[in-house]
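Weekly puzzle thread! Below is a chain. First person to post its structure in token form gets bragging rights.
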Amino acid sequence: MNKKKKMILAGCCVIAALALGGGYLVYQNQQVRAEAEKKSEEQAAVKKEAAAKVKAEKEEKAEKEAEAQKKAEEEAQKKAEEEAARKKAEEEAAAQAAAKPGTGKIVAIDPGHMSQSVDPYDTEPNGPGSDEMKAKDTSGTSGSYTGLPEYQLNLDVSLKLRTALEALGYQVVLTRDTNDLKLSCIERAAIANDSGADIYIRIHANGSENGDASGALALIPSAENAYNGNLYEPSNRLAQCVLDAYCGATGFGNLGVQCNDTMTGNNWSSIPVMILEMGFMTNESDDMQMADDAFQNAMVQGIVDGINAYYGQ
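Winning reply:
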């Protein structure tokens, strides 16, 4: 092979070597680039996954916070509703109590005397264990101008009083609701004592030889009463409340609360007791007014107001 051919062959070898080396470098560069891209993609995937995880955690946290907030709001709403219901119940109870202040209270009312009077010669002890004997009952007085018997006036007022008290929630025990029976003072007191009543109010009307005498008064046992002196204080408070309210409602003169230990019906009482002498049937003005149906409503309202005052209503 001549020298020229050798040189050409050598050149070709060099060119081939250079081409091969260049191709390898290109390949290497491609591999490096591919690995870099792969690594970049992997890093991007990791970042994306991390970002997704953070997002998911935030969403989960936000969801839990929203649930907690919702639960707190529901609990707050429930408490508010319960509080509103409690207040409403209290208001309704207060309104009911105001409308019916007598709920749970028992009042015994004794319409004094009666037409079928017991034999005046038939007597009974003036007090428990007493040797002093008194008539079991009398027919009472009557209106000097109206002719109305006291026993009828007492019953009329007592029946109206029962209706008025029951409308306020009181339980009322009447010793009688008719004139067609006979009851002694002791028997009347026994009805009141056995009824579970808190108080015993005896309804009467007064009479006097002096036609000018007028007004209302109350009779109660004294603190020295041998049978129930321990009832003086509550009886006095009851009588003061009823008499003051009664006179205020009727305009009758207030003759005060008087102690009298001769009253059989009072002496046999085991609960606070009073006699209300509503007015004088021997006085023209008192008699005419007490016989009037509309005025009796005022009389009853006064007694009701007094009973409410006694109970602190």
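Puzzle host: Confirmed. Bonus trivia for everyone else. The first strand starts at residue 106 and ends at 111.
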